[in-house]
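TetR/AcrR family transcriptional regulator
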Amino acid sequence: MVVFAGQGDARRSMALLWRSAGPAEESRPGPKPGLSVDLIVDTAIALADAEGMAALSMRAVGERLGRSGMALYTYVPSKGELVDLMYDRVLGELPTGYGHEEGWRAALTVWARDTWEFYLRHPWVLQVSQARPVLGPNEYLSLETLVRILRETGLDAPRIRGVVGTLFHFLRGSAGTVSEVRQAPAATGVSDEEWWLARSATLLEIAPGLTERFPAVAWLEGATAATSSHDDGLPYLEREARKSFETGLAVLLDGIEATVAG
């Protein structure tokens, strides 16, 4: 499921995203209202965290708040604006200060791990397409944080722009694999262990001689099997995805380092 940001009215979305610390509804005379933009957005984030983006609707958010979906429209005009607000607000969790005492590589490593774990806490964020940026303050701040780190490399702007895109593509793809692994048992009704036991046995029966037909793959599986640890309690594919993340991150950092040295 892909969700495109920026589907609401442009002016209303921008006004809500960039609103001041004191929203208009809080400055009205009389009793303090029971709803606010922040409360609605926080509730929507909790809903998406718990049930996924497919469960998100104005009605579902209203039910969590004990209100009708229509009551929300006074504060958030539509689901389009709500997605924009959710995405930008949750980005505010990301750290913004990374020390450079140990150099750009150490700072970038911590940034990448923080961002990867953030995606795993909020997997619905990965469903918000990067084809249409939200253009909110926290989205800009997260980009500002990364660019500040990368400027310490001394690379020029075009190369830094390329590195920024590469890092985000890598992190989103890697975290997306873990997210899908976690969703698969509930979505299919079959655990990872059950799936692998059934498929691997059937594959060997129906397609014998795999080692001879695909020797490079057989070498890879054999060479890495001895180094695999199963003491962490993680599903096999999540464990492999985590190892791939660490390996891929190291390779990317080596590449940046080589570009700086060149």
